[in-house]
Design goal:
The structure holds two protein chains of two kinds. By secondary structure, chain A is an all-alpha fold. Chain A has 18 helices and no strands. The relative contact order of chain A is 0.11. Chain B has a two-stranded antiparallel ribbon with strand order 1-2. The chains are: A mainly alpha, B mainly alpha.
């Protein structure tokens, strides 16, 4: 082929470039995460910032290492397309804010090497890398991964300063009991297993209003549902994600929760508790919408989202773990190829069953 | 080639390693390699069965017609496994309690029938015995290695309870990393698959490097 043929850019329909790129998409998703992240830093102080930073650095480091070992020549370009950064960011959003440093390093390794690069890198992974790491960490290290702290805003006196934050982050000493606190879902599950129903266990703390502004214990991504929701709506607005998956996830979670709560409010959490706790919002807008691991068609995305939401509710209600979003996303990731096999886009010029459409007779011919 | 014992040893231990090259016997590989001791015990039990079954199959290879050979081999192997099973129950009872089911399952271990079919029916008794030994030791090595890695990452110990298998004099092998809780995932099946995957990748890289070096040497010699 001569050089002219390569440089000539055909601009007819199938070849027109929308101007979008992996980097730009990733950048916009990161922009949408900024408000919730900053708010989380304010709530949980310096340790959460160090955790966030090291998780991202570890993801980038392992990405560079994996690319180098695979003999990729354009390491910089692939490294800074933002995908590893986003994986690290999302992973950090789901970790307990005061988790020790090695959680970030191990998490970065699992997410990038086992979750992504062994499948062939960006666009090839079967499972969402951040969720693979989240689940692997939770299964491997149950204690540090369920150590939630009460919010301690940076401006309050008791908040650890920079040096204290670093010490908490690096030494991973057990936290004083006054700091430890259960997340809403964990609290409800523990109390239910002790035979105390929700009317009593949720009295006082864990009011829904606090969930909206996020002043309660949890991960960075679970604290401020409102800010996550705003980021998600921004993403839908700029066309990075479509509304199908998030709407379906939230519906899949809300509908069974509403039915359960109506039948027995003492045993089943209310819709608002489900929607505003755990990774419901983050999962619906930022994790289940991952292009690579979710179906391609709107109908497929609705099936996928309903599955994620419903399984999250099932795991939260009857499972061994208080939160099930990560498991639900991974399970539905595994089903994505099947969904894509049964729900295909209509072929151009054919109807849904694959029969050619009647082409109106053109006059003259 | 089949009479070259050195070659047979090399094939069994490295080039045709049951786990790392043939990817046979994945069931015990995943299930019992949660510690180095378990891997070693399982590997040795399999080796014992493999050597004797290879010898017996090789001895009867001219008598048994090929139409009925598989049932005959299975009966032979099942007998041997039962002997090993009972022997371990009697003398290595603690280890037997851990490995229990998987000892009995050596009967259907594809490595054993595989070697009977692929090697013992075509070769003499001596070569078959060496092949069984090489394959068995390769299997043992692989299982122990995977077991040690998983044990170290998963519970922070090395050769825990080795004295159950080797006697009290080997208690010095038992090591523990203080202050390490262990990554539970490594003890669970996903950890086994992940470790095996990384080891396979490592073996491929090593082999490619060796081939490259060999090719370079050949070029130098030619030049």
């Amino acid at each position: 082929m001569n050089s002219a043929a390569i440089t000539a850019q055909p601009i007819a329909s199938p070849h027109a470039h929308g101007g979008n790129s992996v980097t730009r998409t990733m950048f916009r998703v990161q922009m949408a995460l900024v408000p919730a992240t900053l708010y989380g830093f304010w709530l949980f102080g310096w340790p959460s910032f160090f955790l966030w930073l090291l998780t991202i650095l570890s993801c980038l480091g392992f990405e560079a290492l994996a690319l180098k070992m695979m003999g990729v020549t354009r390491i910089k370009r692939t490294l800074f397309d933002g995908s590893a950064l986003l994986t690290g960011w999302l992973l950090a959003m789901t970790l307990p804010p005061w988790a020790p440093w090695w959680v970030a390093v191990v998490g970065g390794f699992i997410a990038i090497v086992i979750g992504k690069q062994v499948f062939g890198g960006v666009g090839q992974n079967v499972f969402n890398p951040a969720m693979v790491a989240r689940v692997a960490l939770l299964v491997s290290f149950p204690v540090p991964l369920t150590m939630w702290v009460s919010p301690l805003p940076l401006t309050s006196l008791a908040a650890p300063d920079f040096i204290d934050g670093l010490r908490i982050f690096l030494t991973s000493l057990p936290q004083p009991d006054a700091m430890a606190s259960a997340s809403l879902l964990g609290h409800a599950k523990t109390e239910l297993s002790r035979g105390i129903d929700l009317f009593h266990s949720l009295a006082g703390e864990h009011a829904p209003a606090l969930s909206w502004i996020g002043a309660r214990s949890g991960s960075l991504g679970e604290s401020a549902s409102l800010l996550i929701l705003a980021g998600g709506i921004y993403l839908i607005g700029v066309g990075i994600i479509s509304w199908h998956t998030p709407a379906a996830v939230l519906a899949g979670l809300a509908i069974p929760a509403a039915i359960g709560h109506a039948v027995d409010p003492g045993h089943y959490l209310s819709v608002s508790a489900h929607m505003l706790s755990g990774a419901a919002m983050l999962g619906a807008f930022f994790i289940a919408t991952d292009y690579v691991t979710s179906p391609n068609t709107p109908a497929g995305q609705i099936v996928f989202g309903l599955g994620v939401g419903f399984m999250t509710w099932v795991i939260r209600t009857w499972g061994g773990y208080p939160e099930g979003m990560a498991f639900a996303v991974l399970l539905m990731n595994a089903l994505t190829p099947v969904i894509d096999r049964f729900i295909k886009p209509r072929i151009l010029g054919r109807d849904r069953k694959g029969k050619p459409l009647d082409i109106p007779e053109s006059k003259g011919a | 080639m089949s009479d070259n014992y050195g070659n047979i040893m090399k094939e069994g231990l490295w080039e045709q390693n049951v786990v790392f090259a043939q990817l046979l016997a994945m069931c015990p590989t995943m299930a019992v390699t949660t510690s180095g001791t378990n891997g070693l015990g399982m590997g040795l039990a399999t080796t014992a069965v493999l050597v004797v079954s290879n010898i017996l199959v090789s001895m009867i290879r001219h008598t048994v017609s090929s139409q009925v050979r598989i049932p005959v081999f299975v009966v032979l192997i099942a007998t041997l496994v039962t002997v090993v099973d009972m022997a371990m129950n009697a003398w290595l009872h603690e280890l037997y309690k851990v490995l229990g089911l998987f000892i009995a399952l050596i009967v259907v271990n594809c490595a054993i029938l595989g070697r009977a079919e692929a090697f013992a029916v075509k070769n003499g008794v001596g070569a078959s015995a060496v092949d069984g030994l090489a394959m068995g030791l390769g299997f043992t090595g692989a299982l122990t290695f995977i077991g040690l890695i998983r044990e170290f990452l998963g519970s922070g110990t090395l050769f825990a309870q080795a004295s159950n298998l080797l006697g009290p004099s080997f208690a010095f092998l038992e090591m523990k990393l203080p202050g390490y809780g262990g990554a539970l995932l490594m003890i669970l099946p996903p950890g086994g698959f992940a470790i095996l995957g990384f080891l396979l990748a490592g073996k491929r890289v090593m082999e490619r490097r060796l081939d490259e070096r060999k090719a370079e040497k050949a070029q130098l010699a030619a030049a």
